[in-house]
Design goal:
Bound molecules: heme-as
Number of helices: 17
Oligomer: single chain
Structural class: mainly alpha
CATH class: Mainly Alpha
CATH topology: Cytochrome C Oxidase, Chain A
Helix content: over 70%
CATH superfamily: Cytochrome c oxidase-like, subunit I domain
Low-confidence stretches: none
Distance between the termini: 57 Å
Length: 546
């Protein structure tokens, strides 16, 4: 019997680094929330060796949004692919090499971050400039994650040779699509760093083209959010129905949702650049339409996942139009954390549609609304789902029983209550015109209004509750790792409700890949050609301002 010992080790190390990064990164969140409340957080920042609010903000964004997610996803999906195909990694050394490349990259990027030399925020927009080795470090993290994806694809290729004509199991297919989406979309940031930023930060060219850099960044920046989201969807579709005691309502529809993400995720980055003057409105309109179309696979997901949970609720004796919800396994921390993550995500998703609407975006762009949005999406829809996954994955990997189920349940509820208050505060502040990435405590004295006060307090209170929730999570993890009580926990794999034949087009990469490339060429090609033709490498770097 294959115990997947190697894959457990690979995934385990990725997840260890992910949790470590999250634990460090999350520390700076409450400091920002308390600053927004009006507290002087400089002494606390200095106590942890930081020099400014912006250094803390950069660390928070990079460690939480980029490092926690990328390490968790590559580790988790490596294991899911192996288990789902029921075969070990064909080239485990490639997966290990990928891990080490990512770790080396992380260390290279961490040094300037900690020395306050790379306080450029997680979006690293030029002309803010960091040392060249910061960018090289981030590039290595991305290259390592590509290598992880190649290892998964090579394993799948070997499986295909042994299973000619067979349909790829859902969990493996969904994981592979997530990794391929990542390979495609990171071409933007790879070109930005290699062609524009590295020569500029090395001093080989006198300046940089800010507009083109931003365009290449957002080429990756928006699909990046689906790279975060899809592994959560892997669990919502392929695992949670089983945890709920039910079955996946429609497997073909689930596959279609993943293919649609592959097709539609990349060609829509201009919705982050609606206010950028260098991009003609027609292109912004095209990207707005494509953004609203990528909303569609999330609606398919809402329908399919809720129907699967309903199937579970009814199988557990639930009745009525909505009363089946009460029969779901709310005593299971893994299930509860993920269900609460979904509910919060539904609000975040609706906020996303507001952001995508061109004229409304002009109201909320660059305001506190935006962090309000992303704490309900990546900050909860994704992060709380990953935490929920860890509540079965750690016992599954270690053979130790989950310590303190009640504590873990409290953790999930506290996070949800905390983020609800926190992001409500930020959304309100945004609508009142409070800018994002600003020390609101200080700014209020200069140009705030009295209406800012209550939502500022909400932000501080919600952030504090989230911090308490995270401390409880760490307690549960540490106590579980040291637990003497053993348990045999299986990876939950949901069966399909109807054993339908999967149509060939839902098991075939070609049309979706070709479609994705064609859409990218249409949505980006002419603008990129024009930007390159009018390249202006003129802007010098700014640093040392913080
Ligand atoms: Fe976003 C900005 C538009 C989704 C993350 N987004 C950001 C930023 C981040 C981010 C980090 O158009 C800030 C970037 C920066 O620093 O500048 N976003 C969207 C749209 C969607 C969307 C249309 N975003 C996400 C996801 C993220 C994420 C997912 C992370 C994982 N976003 C924008 C726009 C901006 C933006 C503009 C730029 C704003 C600006 O001007 O700066 C959509 O994909 C959302 C679709 C999703 C839904 C929800 C479906 C609901 C489901 C759950 C159902 C379950 C239920 C529970 C109801 C419509 C699937 C049942 C439970 C039971 C127990 C029964």
């Amino acid at each position: 019997m294959n115990t997947f010992a190697v894959e457990r080790k690979i995934a385990g190390w990725h997840i260890f680094v992910a949790i470590f990064a999250l634990s460090l990164g999350i520390l700076f969140g409450p400091l920002q929330a308390w600053e927004h409340m009006g507290w002087n957080t400089y002494p606390a920042l200095q106590a942890v060796g930081l020099q400014s609010y912006y250094q803390g903000l950069t660390l928070h964004g990079v460690l939480n949004a980029l490092v926690w997610t990328t390490f968790f996803i590559t580790g988790f999906l490596t294991y899911v692919v192996a288990k789902s195909l029921n075969r070990g990694m064909t080239f485990p050394k490639l997966s290990w090499a990928a891990f080490f490349v990512m770790v080396i990259g992380l260390v290279m990027a961490a040094i300037p971050l900690l020395l306050n030399l790379a306080t450029v925020l997680y979006t690293m927009y030029p002309p803010l400039q960091a040392p060249w080795y910061y960018y090289l470090g981030l590039t290595l993290v991305v290259v390592g994650s590509w290598m992880s994806g190649w290892s998964m694809l090579l394993t799948w290729n070997a499986w295909r040779k042994d299973n000619k004509g067979a349909t790829t199991p859902f969990l493996a297919l969904a994981s592979l699509i997530s990794m391929v989406l990542w390979q495609i979309c990171t071409l933007g940031i790879a070109s930005e760093i290699l062609v524009l930023i590295l020569p500029w930060s090395l001093g080989l060219v006198p300046g940089i083209d800010v507009q083109l850099s931003r365009t290449l960044f957002w080429f990756t920046g928006h699909p990046l959010v689906y790279f975060w989201l899809l592994p959560a969807y892997v669990s919502w579709y392929g695992m949670m129905p089983k945890q709920a005691g039910g079955k996946l309502f429609s497997e073909p529809l689930a596959r279609l949702a993943f293919w649609l993400f592959l097709l539609l995720s990349t060609p829509l980055g201009f919705h982050h650049q609606y206010v950028d003057p260098g991009i003609p409105e027609g292109w912004k309109f095209l990207h707005a339409v494509l953004t609203l179309s990528v909303f569609f696979p999330s609606m398919l997901t809402a329908f399919n996942v809720v129907a699967s949970l309903e199937n579970g609720g009814r199988a557990r004796g639930g009745t009525g139009l909505l009363m089946w919800i009460r029969s779901l396994p709310w005593g299971d921390p893994s299930f509860t954390a993920q269900s609460l993550a979904m509910i919060v995500f539904a609000f975040g998703g609706v906020g996303g549609v507001i952001n995508a609407s061109y004229n409304v975006n002009l109201v909320i762009h660059n305001t506190a609304w935006v962090p309000g949005h992303f704490h309900t999406t990546v900050g909860t829809g994704v992060t709380l789902t990953f935490i929920g996954i860890l509540y079965w994955l750690i016992p599954h990997f270690t053979g130790k029983a989950l310590w303190g189920r009640k504590w873990a349940l409290w953790q999930a509820w506290l996070w949800t209550i905390g983020v609800a208050i926190f992001s409500q505060g930020l959304h309100r502040l945004g609508l009142l015109g409070a800018p994002r990435r600003t020390m609101l405590g200080v700014a209020t004295d200069n140009y705030g209004t009295p209406e800012w006060l209550f939502p500022r307090l909400m932000t501080g209170l919600g952030g504090t509750i989230m911090l308490i929730s995270f401390c409880v999570f760490l307690l549960v993890v540490i106590k579980t790792m040291r637990n003497k009580e053993t348990a045999q926990v299986e990876m939950p794999v949901a069966e399909a409700l109807h054993h339908e034949t999967i149509p060939a087009w839902l098991n075939n990469w070609q049309p979706w890949l070709v479609g994705a490339v064609v859409l990218i060429l249409i949505a980006y090609g002419p603008m990129l050609v024009q930007s390159i033709a009018q390249l202006q490498m003129t802007s010098p770097g700014f640093n040392g301002l913080w």
